[in-house]
Amino acid sequence: MHVPDGFINAPVSVAAGVVAVAAVGVSLRGARRELGGPSQAEGSGGERTAPLAGLVAAFVFAVQMLNFPVAAGTSGHLLGGALAAILVGPYTGVLCVSVVLLMQGILFADGGLTALGVNITVMGGVTVVVAYAIFRGLLKVLPPTRRSVTAAAFTGALVSVPAAAAAFTAVYAVGGTTDVPLAKVLTAMVGVHVLIGIGEAAITAATVGAVIAVRPDLVHGARGLHTPLKLRVGGELVDAPAAEAPAPAAHRSTRKFWLTGLVTALVLAGFVSFYASASPDGLEKVAADKGIDAKVEDHAAAGSPLADYGVKDVEDPRLSGGLAGVIGVGATVAVGTGIFITVSRRRRSDELTAASTAPPAAG
Question: Number of folded domains in the chain?
Answer without folding.
Answer: 1
